Automatic annotation (TrEMBL):
Its EC number is 2.4.1.155. This is alpha-1,6-mannosyl-glycoprotein 6-beta-N-acetylglucosaminyltransferase. Its main location: Golgi. It is an enzyme of class 2 (transferase). It comes from Porites evermanni. Pathway: Protein modification; protein glycosylation. It is found in: Golgi apparatus membrane.
Amino acid sequence: MQDFCYQNLWPPLKALITAQGEAGKSCKEVCLSKGMVCEPEFFSKINSRDSLTQNGFPCNSSRLEEVPSLIAPGFRKESQACILQTQTLLFSCTGTSPSTMRLCPCRKYKKGQVALCEDC
């Protein structure tokens, strides 16, 4: 039964599209600027050094901070540090910081039906 529930997560992981945000932009703004919505269910899937690095953040050569923050995961420009979230309840599509570039979990949606994935 547990495998069945895990495989039928909504939205499905195949709908995840990551986007790198500019400093000062929320994930809601970043995803909307690309014609998508921020999907909070996917934050736990992208909250890793590997995800940050694969999406263009210099985490291999930068410090890594694990913090309870509304803007993680992301990259702090002034301290040159990659940040990861330690508290899953703090993942936020709307958190912003003027010095942090966020890694955002976006997904496409059906026009007029934001809750539904375009390809789901």
